[in-house]
Amino acid sequence: MSLLISFIILFIGIMIFCNPEWYNDYRGIFYDFSNLRILASSTFVIVGLIGIVTSFRALNRDSQKNEMMICPECQQTITVYTAQDGRCPHCGGELEPLDGFYERHPELLDEDTEPGH
Ligand SMILES: [Zn+2]
């Protein structure tokens, strides 16, 4: 669910809850089903909030993936900001994206668990 749609859903929920005049045309129905207004508005608000939270979490996850790099030589993880030339500041090795690094280099996982390394 996109962030914009989530905000629109949340806004509709708040509108239904805070502005009963919005329901003018349906006043007869509104009086008969006053509980429905609360139910509908809270449903909209909850769905909107869930959408906003999940959208922000997805954005966070993506930006963290893009920010982190790893050096295959010394296996230091470095943010893109501290290594703008794409080289490791510790040993000068060429950096790779951290995402999926150990899938591409499974041999480095075993080396890393050796004692004294
Ligand atoms: Zn390095």
UniProtKB/TrEMBL annotation:
Residue stretches spanning the membrane: 38-59
Highest rank taxon of the organism: Bacteria
Keywords assigned by UniProt, alphabetized: Membrane, Transmembrane, Transmembrane helix
Name of the protein described by the UniProt record: Zinc ribbon domain-containing protein
Source species of the chain: Oceanidesulfovibrio marinus
